[in-house]
Amino acid sequence: YTHTAKQTVDSCLEGYNATIFAYGQTGTGKTHTMEGFTYDCVDESRGIVPRSMEEIFRYIENCENPQARFLVRASYLQIYNEALSDLLKPERAGLSIREDRRKGVFVDGLSEWVVRAP
User: Fold this and answer.
1) In whole angstroms, what is the distance from residue 9 CA to residue 18 CA?
2) Residues 36-41: contacts with CB within 8 Å, 24+ apart?
3) pLDDT at position 80 over 80
4) pLDDT tens track for 58-67
5) By the 8 A CB rule, do 118 and 57 touch?
6) 22: left (phi over 0), alpha (psi -120 to 50) or beta
């Protein structure tokens, strides 16, 4: 995590949008890398996603600015055989990548969830 995703999470905490992307052949460990075996916060085998959420919410918890407000949103997307699917809302498959002058590049129909705790 420290060598691969932490810098991306730090950028997110500075106000930038962030994407953590796992790429590779089937069976090479992408799901394990992203999710791990467990979501127990003390288990070293947890993946990048739970570690990222822990870091984000630790930052929010330790923020000393009483005026600061935070909104954490997350999406989880899979690209398999050139087909895009929403892993947080599995019935949404066959999604498309679009570009808009105002929104930039986005995945049309991808769910976005407000996250309140790691």
Assistant:
1) 7
2) 41/118
3) yes
4) 999 999 999 9
5) yes
6) beta
Confidence of residue 40 (pLDDT cuts 50, 70, 90): low
CA dihedral 17, 23, 106, 76 (to 10 degrees): -80
Residue 78 forms beta bridges with which residues?
A: 85
Q: How confident is the model at residue 39 (pLDDT cuts 50, 70, 90)?
A: low
Per-residue H/E/C for the chain: CCCCCHHHHHHHHCCCCCCCCCCCCCCCCHHHHHHECCCCCCCCCECHHHHHHHHHHHHHHHCCCCCCCCCCEECCEEEECCEEEECCCCCCEEEEEEEECCCEEEEECCCCEECCCC
Question: How many residues are present in the chain?
Answer: 118
Answer whether residue 43 shows pLDDT above 80: no
Give me the chain's average pLDDT, please.
90
Exposure of 92 by Cβ count < 10 A (0-12 exposed, 13-18 middle, 19+ buried)?
middle
Contact indicator for 32, 38 with CB cutoff of 8 Å: no
